[in-house]
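Aim 2, interim progress: modelling of the zinc ion-bound target.
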Amino acid sequence: MSNELKELIREITEVYGPTGREERIADFIEKRISPYVDEIRRDAMGNLICTKKGTSGKRVMLSAHMDQIGLIVTDIDEKGFLRFAPVGGINPAITACREVVFENGVRGVTYYEQKTVTDGKPTLAQMFIDIGCDSREKAEGHVSIGDICTYAPHFVDMGNRVACGALDDRICCAILIEAMKDMKSPHEICVCFTTQEEVGLRGATAAAYSIAPDFSINMDVTMSADTPECMPLPMKMGEGATIKYMDRSAVFTKPVIDFMRKVANDNGIKTQNEILKAGGTDSGAIQSARGGVASGCVSIVTRYIHSPVEMADLDDCAEAVRFVRALAESEELPLS
Ligand code: CO
Ligand code: ZN
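Predicted structure of the complex, ligand included:
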């Protein structure tokens, strides 16, 4: 199963799908999940909502975001260089000297103004994309203003650990597909692959309203705190799926945390505690939807988030598959 999941992670991270341009990744996921669900629909924001019928009268929402961070073209100059703005949390420190790729397959590289950057630390405004064209006319034959590119995908296979771009949050999309293969829940399961998480949980906000779940588990990546000189936080790669207590978008309630702990204990699932000091996830939007939703969050501890070399551990992924399935299959749900 580990090799199958690794192959799915490789394929799913190579599909183009920055924020607001998720059609292609939605098509990919739809193909992979369709054998395991009864109905699939998309809403106006591009959310992919896959439903497996249940008999309990309760609805459980499982979610992960499909979008990845990107760069949107804002200007094309007379020499054919592109200027860009960030779509999501782009880190300037790692954005120069990258290979980038557009939806139509056009490739380019990023660099910065030689004269204005004196300290070796270019800002995004000082950077440009070179797509190998020597005039505006030629460049406009390949790329238009408003096109969005991503860091070019490159999969690094280190055995039990893998590194590549877009693990945030495609790794959790892969885990949810895997979890649905064997899902035997009394509840209706709504698996939602959301859009536009990276710019403020926008797809999930719309999807949580229309799905109206009784209980929800969101999945995303979270920071690791196990590399040299890093922050003192409890998350370590290889220590299992997380039970999240808090991030910048949500504080998880005691009934939900207690429920998640009990399910992990009853099923012998390896979990670790998570408190994320920076960043939020879709669970923040889902928890406060409608009249409030009992919501939890399970994360995959990931190194180097929002870089082209995000790294995760496949044992953590396997635990997360078992955990999310056990949570969704539990007859008793918190607060419902
Ligand atoms: Co992210
Ligand atoms: Zn994410």
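Residues 70-151 form a domain with the Elongation Factor Tu (Ef-tu); domain 3 fold (CATH 2.40.30.40). Helices lie at 2-13, 23-33, 136-140, 167-181, 202-211, 254-266, 282-287, 314-329.
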